[in-house]
Amino acid sequence: MGSIGRAARQLCDTLPMHDCLFCKLVAGQIPSAVVYRDDDLFAFRDINPQAPFHVLVVPRRHISTLNDVSAGDDGLVGAMLRRAAALAAEHGYAERGYRTVFNCNADAGQTVFHLHLHVLAGRGLAWPPG
Ligand code: AMP
Ligand code: ZN
User: Ligand 1: does its nearest atom lie under 6 Å from the Cβ of 109?
Assistant: First the structure.
């Protein structure tokens, strides 16, 4: 991301109306159990894990839902998926298997409106999901 984009993001994160939980985690304003970070992505353990291994991979930049992802974000979303695979592998779940989930809006149960990829592993995961 260039300096203008970075400045815009920083400005956005300081606006009083920008009250996003995951932006605050990314900014370090709220503590989290971080498992990965780079210039574009941030990953941390879910506070209410639904499996022995449950992490969330999020873009540092605020994107509300999968509906808000544009063609220009293809690289970012690809990096999120590849990071999910890398984290699963690092924690020993590549061969056993794991699940990646983007919940989008009400029927999927999305509760935090900052794009996040769930990575779940360590138990058999039912299909179809509830
Ligand atoms: P979703 O229901 O797909 O929007 O997922 C949001 C996830 O964020 C849930 O699994 C929550 O347990 C998780 N979550 C909420 N607050 C925190 C937090 N402070 N730290 C880590 N995970 C959180
Ligand atoms: Zn956000």
Answer: yes
Domain 20-121 grouped into CATH 3.30.428.10: yes
Is residue 116 annotated as a catalytic residue, yes or no?
Answer: yes
At 4-46, the pLDDT tens digits run: 655 565 555 455 447 999 999 999 999 999 999 999 999 999 9
pLDDT at 16: 47
Stated pTM of the model: 0.90
Within 13 Å and on the Cβ side, how many CA atoms surround 91?
Answer: 20
Asked if residue 14 has its Cβ within 6 Å of ligand 1, the reply is: no
Residues 6+ apart with CB under 8 A from 89: none
Q: Please state the atom number of ligand 1 nearest to the C-alpha of residue 112.
A: 4
Model confidence pLDDT, tens digit, residues 110-126: 999 999 999 999 999 99
